[in-house]
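Appendix B. Raw example, untouched.
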Amino acid sequence: METVSSPEVFLHIKVVMGMVISLSLARVLTGLAGIVQHPGKAKVYPIHLGWALSMFLFIIHIWWWEYRLQAVPAIGFGIYLFLVCFCSLFFLLCALLFPASLDEYGGYEEYFISRRKWFFGILGLTYAIDILDTAIKGHERILSLGWEYPARNIVYIILCAIAAWTPNRRFHTAFITANLIYQVSFIFRLYDVLG
């Protein structure tokens, strides 16, 4: 079998991952545009909008972070499949945030609370899989992130489990507020510049 150089493999994988990530980003942007275009069609829910903003940040952050795949010396089909499935989780999250129709619901609040187990279950899974994604990039990369990275992922998995379980609006408000503040802080402190 012919061996292909790493930059060529990385470019090929980056294109496929980019297509899946682009669908996720398009789903969020289309959903937000639909709210602007038809403000009276469905009742807006601030917590839902917060998670839409969070997914926007998460998606562009992941795409920024995946640039580091070029440092992986060899990528087999197993890693390729893993990466495409990982990116697909973002599409599922975005599709859950913005369904094709809200006809069965009284608005985004009723919809979001009724689908919270799915949304937060997949979001928690995403944080768990993110650890494996980081491991692919090498042991040195994990060590360079320090204690905060694994602690962050473990805390998010626990918070997602609680969010999936409880419909308590105060908890959900506190979770999304703390999430957005921390998410912006984490991105700019650890990932501001690619190097």
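End of appendix B.
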